[in-house]
Amino acid sequence: MEFFKALKYYSRKDIQAEMLNFSKNREFIPQFRGSFGKRPDIIQYNGA
Predict the structure, then answer these.
(1) What is the pTM of this model?
(2) Alpha-carbon span 4 to 40, nearest angstrom
(3) What residues contact 24, with CB distance under 8 A and at least 6 apart?
(4) In sequence order, what are the residues at sequence separation of 6 or more whose Cβ sits closer than 8 angstroms to the Cβ of residue 4?
(5) Which of 12, 16, 30, 37 shows the greatest Cβ crowding within 10 Å of its Cβ?
(6) Pick the residue with more confidence: 36 or 12?
(7) Are 28 and 36 in contact, with CB atoms under 8 Å apart?
């Protein structure tokens, strides 16, 4: 997926709300253009 298409999609409030609901009590590993974020990491609230 092209970067700007992904950015537009994941910037939608309805998508962010679903990701927040799905990720409760789960660990995830963020990926940033080829490198990975720290782990463990969690999403606790919508900060956008």
Answers:
(1) 0.61
(2) 27
(3) 43
(4) none
(5) 16
(6) 12
(7) no
